[in-house]
Amino acid sequence: ESASIPAGITGVGVEMFQRPWTSIGTECGSTLGPAGFSWVLTSPPQEHITGTQWWTSYQPVSYTVDSKLGTEQQFADMVKACRAAGVKVIADAVINHMTAQGAGTGFAGTAFTKYAYPGLYGPKDFHHCTLTPDGSIQDYTSRAQVQTCELVGLADLDTASAHVRTTIAGYLTHLLGLGVAGFRIDAAKHMAAEDVAAIVAMLPKGTPVISEVIRGAEEPIQPEEYTRIGQVFEFAYARELGPQLTAGVLMDPARADHVPSASAVVFVDNHDTERGDAAVTYRDGPLDLMADALMLADDYGTPVVYSGYAFSDPDAGPPQDASGHVTGWECAGATGPKASYADGEGVCAEAWKSIAGMIEWRDAAGAAERRPGVSKGAAYGFERTGRAVIAANPGSSPATLAVPTTLPAGTYCDVIADGPSMDGCAGGATVRVSDGAATFDLDAGQTAAIHLGATG
Ligand code: ARE
Ligand code: CA
């Protein structure tokens, strides 16, 4: 029942992985706002261990908002710039654990040892699991191990304790004070749902939270346990869509084992899966764009586009200066996926005109029903009744596909080729609708999409 589903984030989001606050702030005004993005997911903003790897962000040393991505002032300025551009900021909240590193000085100068973080936590605030020889999670079929042992050796907070809960809630409340709209709850699977619920209950009612609970076959802890708290990332979505693209066989979604649409945040890939088991990533160029377009055309879930940087070493962080600050990159000139990228180069998906075109398409589709798709060879397409039509050809040869539609006859702008087109077909790419069908001529790897109101 929708009454029991907490309010969540809506509209199209973008994960801007390892992007400095100044860079996101600039792009909110130049790119995200104009393209119609509703929200941006940032990397974790708190103080972390030092190092060149991207994943230092996921080892908190303190909750001081001072990191390789910028200072608290820069963070606050970014949030302000984004809000002014109509873009909400969702911050990645790393609250299950602190460091795995044994001792050191954090990015902002805080000296720590594992289990002792000045002003925040001491040894009694951690689980110190004895279920495995080294205290690390070994068996994901054990609820107790997953929630009270250490995720890859990260000091596991006792999130059942009142002190830990109020300390975490204090940090999140501070971020809300800086203007963030809500949170991604990192490693939520590793905290009892009741602990996460208790922490979220200390925040203003209706604060959007998206729990990261990776759906795993045979595991006792599933995303459904967390939907009473807020939304969850539905990992099954990309696992269904991605392989269809690489196999060149698109089908109507079955959506077996998916949370209800209102609870789902969906993606093609994220910062873990592009280094792991994602079928489609930036390396796949046109197929990556096709996957994003099909996700944005869907009537299921809240979509988040992923935008990271190219890498050959999965541990490598983005370019940083001598002080360890990430230098960032500008995406203003990026119009679409590139055939190849240098290591450390931004992929810039948020700036692709086809993504902006699909956000316009999605708005035009509104709540219209997704009709069953049609296929011819590898080409596949579907209509959102009377509002918008998309077609994609993941195959290796050109194909012509007629998609039944109730759109009025006419010549429509292809928003994939040319971007947003409410003012006419900017680049001249068009699709004909006549006799109740939209006829798409698609090259191998091509996606095309048309919507009501954009004719040329
Ligand atoms: C790094 C090194 C490790 C080292 C560790 C401690 O890579 O080799 O042991 O530091 O020194 C990120 C990186 C990690 C990194 C960590 C800390 O991905 O590589 O470790 O930061 O710096 C599980 C969790 C899920 C988690 C994934 C990665 O359930 O929550 O593992 N994802 C989030 C973030 C990550 C982040 C963390 C959590 C930690 O998105 O980026 O780690 O804050 C099955 C299960 C899944 C499981 C998955 C992988 O699919 O169903 O639940 O995901 O296997 O084990
Ligand atoms: Ca835990």
From TrEMBL:
- EC number per UniProt: 3.2.1.1
- Entry cofactors: Ca(2+)
Protein's UniProt keywords contain Cytoplasm: no
Listed under catalytic activity are:
Endohydrolysis of (1->4)-alpha-D-glucosidic linkages in polysaccharides containing three or more (1->4)-alpha-linked D-glucose units
Query: What is its EC class?
Result: hydrolase
Keyword Calcium listed? The answer is yes
State the source organism's domain of life.
Bacteria
Q: Which residues form the Glycosyl hydrolase family 13 catalytic domain?
A: 11-362
- InterPro entries documented for this protein: A-amylase/branching_C, A-amylase_C, Alpha_amylase, GH, GH13_cat_dom, Glyco_hydro_b
Query: Could you list the residue ranges that cross the membrane?
Result: none
Question: Domain Alpha-amylase C-terminal, which positions?
Answer: 371-455
Q: Which residues form a coiled coil?
A: none
Going by the UniProt record, its keywords in alphabetical order are: Calcium, Carbohydrate metabolism, Glycosidase, Hydrolase, Metal-binding, Signal
Tell me which PANTHER family the record gives. Answer: ALPHA-AMYLASE (PTHR43447)
UniProt family annotation: Belongs to the glycosyl hydrolase 13 family.
Q: What is this protein called?
A: Alpha-amylase
- Look up and give the organism this protein is from: Microbacterium rhizosphaerae
